[in-house]
UniProtKB/TrEMBL annotation:
Keywords of this entry: Signal
Highest taxon of the lineage: Bacteria
Official protein name in the record: Lipoprotein
N-terminal signal peptide: 1-27
Length: 262
């Protein structure tokens, strides 16, 4: 296949989701994790086969490329099936009073307030415990006076140095908090930024919990250009960041699965 043909095929593949009607407005109700559209996978397979000159390798890669690059929507479940909520933070604002950023907490910022608002809307329909990253928990406590909220705090060393938890770090703390409950861990309803929530659900599951996005609830999607985390200021930057994180996790799973003994 000539280079021009490869580019044309890839462009057509990228156009398929739009042709199928997938857009941010409709994406929240996407069932998630279904098979890729036949035409999309066919074109992706053709492009990769031509580029790699290896159909077997291309066939093994296509599902991963589709999952990481073309599917941004987690599986959902009705609120009645969820036993607790896990709310993952997104971005922040630099400390209002300045100071050493390694020892002074940032401001939670407007995106985390929107995430807290989302938790509050969900809780109006069902009162279940909430495990919230501290940036969200602060708003749940100050703005909503919400009860049954467990704040997932950063790790503070004896010298005051703050280590902020990753998405996986938050999930690990939640799993630890629920592992010895009499009724078992239960099923998590995940709240997260629109472009982050798929990975939030996957990470929660990777920590041994059943997890879904609450069905019928739209997640915040407006980026904060003043965020203290540069990769969360613009969508084009964040999507690359999130895909890189997904690939890193997938790499570890595939290598461990292929060679469990190292």
């Amino acid at each position: 296949m000539q280079r021009r043909d490869v580019v044309t095929a890839l462009a057509a593949a990228l156009a398929v989701p739009a042709a199928l009607g997938t857009s941010p407005a409709t994406a929240q109700e996407h069932p998630g994790h279904g098979p890729a559209p036949d035409e999309l996978t066919r074109r992706m397979l053709a492009v990769l086969t031509a580029e790699l000159d290896d159909r077997a390798a291309a066939r093994s890669l296509v599902p991963h490329v589709h999952d990481v690059g073309f599917d941004w929507h987690p599986e959902t479940a009705p609120l009645r099936k969820l036993d607790f909520l896990v709310a993952y933070g997104f971005g922040n604002r630099p400390p209002a009073g300045g100071g050493d950023p390694t020892k002074v907490r940032p401001e939670p910022g407007p995106v985390n307030e929107e995430l807290a608002d989302t938790v509050a809307r969900i809780r109006r329909h069902r009162t279940i415990p909430v495990y919230a990253q501290w940036e969200i928990a602060r708003f749940l406590e100050s703005k909503y006076r919400m009860r049954h909220v467990i704040s997932i705090e950063p790790v503070v060393a004896p010298d005051g140095t703050i280590t902020y938890l990753s998405t996986d770090g938050v999930a690990a703390q939640v799993a630890k908090a629920r592992e010895h409950l009499p009724g078992g861990v239960g099923t998590a309803g995940v709240v997260g930024f629109r472009d982050h929530i798929k990975r939030c659900v996957q990470t929660t599951r990777d920590r041994g919990m059943k997890a879904y996005a609450p069905q019928g609830h739209t997640m915040p999607h407006t980026y904060d250009p003043k965020s203290g985390q540069p990769w969360t200021r613009r969508r084009d930057l964040y999507l690359v960041h999130d895909m890189a994180a997904q690939w890193q996790v997938l790499r570890e799973k595939l290598v461990t699965g292929a060679f469990p003994q190292g």
